[in-house]
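CHAIN AND CONFORMATION:
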Amino acid sequence: MKEITEIIFSNCNKMATIKSIIDEVAKTDITVLIKGESGCGKELVARSIHNSSHRRTKPFVKVNCAAIPPNLLESELFGFEKGAFTGAHLKKPGKFEMANGGTILLNDIEEMDLSLQAKLLQVLQDGAFSRLGGNGELVIDTRVIVTTKNNIERSLAEGRFREDLFFRINVINLTIPPLRDRIEQIPLLSEYFFNLYKKKYGREVSPLSPKLIETFKSYSWPGNIRELENFIKRLVILGEEEMVLQSLYEKMEGKEKVEGSFPLFSSVTEPLRPIFNLKEVGKKAAELAERELIEATLQQTRWNRKEAAKLLRISYKALLYKVDKYGLESGLTQKDGDRLNSEKLDLRKNEVLEKEKRWREGSR
């Protein structure tokens, strides 16, 4: 199966042109600005630049400037020394330091605070910086790629983005077209995500029908590739193509129906017969939501099951059961997997000891 970083450049002249630019840009260390709507594949393009460069074996580090509060973003990017602020008991390297020799991707650069923009400009000019609370300079060799989903020129005009930084990052400018302007890629992307999630969730699902693909092509996809991925994921888990189609029809502008669409019920000239069991669909949807919530919480806690159980407000035993039920152990590293198996064994030992204790107390 082709990698997603290959597929996004396949079967589309606009993306093929971007790929030819990437092949040239990858030979240099020049800063690249990537523009495009949310979910259109900006990060995939950035990763392709990294993978095509001499830095491909070095780290590729991502930072979402919009997701981190301004007062924390500086320490996240540049790290801090021990004692730099209350709670800084140990020194911590920043993302720039972690990406040394490789590439750092700064997503949503327009969301960065003005004061931090000045420090970023200095790093781009000098290739060096100081950790928060530190005196010595750290020299780095890191390629910088930035993305924006908004009109960065408007932020510039409104004084929310530094002009000198804009000129520094806007040497090579790539604009990624939205998925609605590259519908010829929809069959390839759909097949990729279908096979990916079939394997991930261990599901046996009928192949994607031509009608489904044609419906996908007629939809505007405001959420772009990410929205398509979520539709395919839902289809694989629920196993009901007709239901996914119906939800897609309802999302279309004006709730228009595609000619020859699948109805939720058979023809009105016949007795009404649901094509799927509503109770079963509700159960599957609930399980899907539960699985995604648990997986997101585990990722948030870096697979600390005890901490995740507290956040989810369920018992530790219940969490381990659900991790098994949804096959979430596949997302663990070998080290984490070994630790989880050890924790399960400890839990079983404790259960046996508790039962033995109750038996002894009852036999007195």
